[in-house]
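Predict the 3D structure for this chain.
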Amino acid sequence: MTAPTTELIYIHGFVSSIRSRKAEATREYIARCDLPVEYRCPQLSAHPASAEARLLQEIADCSTPPVLIGSSMGGFYATHLTERFGLRSVLVNPAVAPHQLMSKYLGPNSNPYTGEEFTLTESDLQRLQEQDLPINQSRALSLVLLETGDETLDYRAALSHYEGVPTIVEQGGDHRFQSYERYLPLIFETLLTGDGFS
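Done. Predicted structure below.
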């Protein structure tokens, strides 16, 4: 009997792209292992309202509730969507309270991967704050992966914020999560069966 197809949405980070190393590694792993997974990775706007609208459309387009992988800001969005819809998700070096972290980016910016130019505004930060839902432990996220060498985000903020959620902390590494490929078997076991880590 053929296993049912699971729809996966990979959510990239701020000023990242669908061609990021982790996004590509995820897509390649699915193909190499011939997993029953339909891979989705939308290119998201840097503006949080637009990014949320695109992600909600992706979910609406899925025939069954999808599973999520979120990296950095994508981890924040995945948390938001998990709390709204009860989706199974894995977070990689997730951003915590990005409305505070992003204040240094107010004004003109550009995405080095796509060339998109944009202006981050106070209303964008306000929208991020509105999206920052409290974590409901009765509908907990599946797995959080952190590396202590993250030069962009303090892993200790995520460790505290996601207390009670299954978490693995790797020593060293960086914001890109250098161990990602090694964790892909566990990530997919967790997403597809719910039994990967506890």
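The longest helix spans residues 48-61.
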